[in-house]
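Support reply, case 0932

Customer input (verbatim):
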Amino acid sequence: MRDKVVVGLSGGVDSSVAAAKLHHQGYEVEGLTLWLMKGKGQCCSEGMVDAAFICEQLGIPHHIVDTRELFQTHIVDYLVAGYNSGVTPLPCSQCNKAVKFGPMLQYARENLGADKIATGHYARVGYDPDGGRYQLLRALDRKKDQTYFLYDLSQELLGACVFPLGAITKSETRQLAAEYGLKTAEKPESQDLCLIEAHGSMQKFLEQYIERQKGDIVDLEGNVLGQHEGIHRYTIGQRRGIGLAAAEPLYVIALDAVKNRVIVGDRARATQSSCTVQRVNWLSIQPPSGPVRAEVQIRYRTPPVPVTVIPLSDQSGDGSASRVKLVFDEEQFGVTPGQAAVWYDGEILLGGGVIEPKET
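Our regenerated output:
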């Protein structure tokens, strides 16, 4: 019998295959499902039932940990505060570090006597002996690569992680699920955030917490072009659903929470050559003292583009820059405050952080 690994089970096909793959490789596997919230979705009640069934199929223990308070604080409250302030938060990377991986490892160590945790993420872990650091590497299946959402993990968490799907493709995952006879083999893949799955849309979720508040839609000169019913309904770069008739397409350029205004302009005004990033986490390398050439993704589905990452002077507690400036080789469209900017050197994820609002 190999070492014990605690596998995070959402009830989806990816995490199911991760558990089955490790089990068939001879690891001592135990399943763990986090209870994040009530409602439909792979992370919730339906997912817990499927996760329990998978553990029964594999003949392994199944544990459920109640993390609803953590999820409320770190995700729900975080999202509501962000949208109220005029940014579009990305909850997934925050959730992975604060709600999922951290509590999973703590529970595994304190209650199950395990030092390794595994998930169904498409990612890989390497180790650089010269730098003495674990490295987060892109998955073999680049179309499914999920390292973008994992940039904020610590060295401790990354060193404890096992990603059984990192070196296989999604089609191979489905094939393995069928070969193992898993209940989830044909389960449809989740396409949305768990909150969207549970509530139908992000807008419906948010409007449980944020009251509609009418305000002005203005151009860059401050001319009123129309009305909106809440800035939380808009995001930078948005074109459709603005509710304006104009001679040329208009895009959301900025959201002014103080004056409750949505600022619009033509496409050229929705592009920028640089941005600043806060809450930076240098994961696979030590924080650099000077500029670094890399490729950056400013959204999960956007292709990486060449960039210069410039550490700024403000310092975090460990002496590294907690903010950086990204200077793009070519102007980028729809750089969205609150979303993650994640930079790479080839397949190695160097670091990432949260995009700050630009001055308007």
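We compared this against your earlier run and they match. Two observations from our side: The two ends are 60 Å apart (CA to CA). Helices lie at 13-24, 45-58, 68-84, 91-111, 155-160, 170-179, 194-199, 202-206. Please reopen the case if you see a mismatch on your end.
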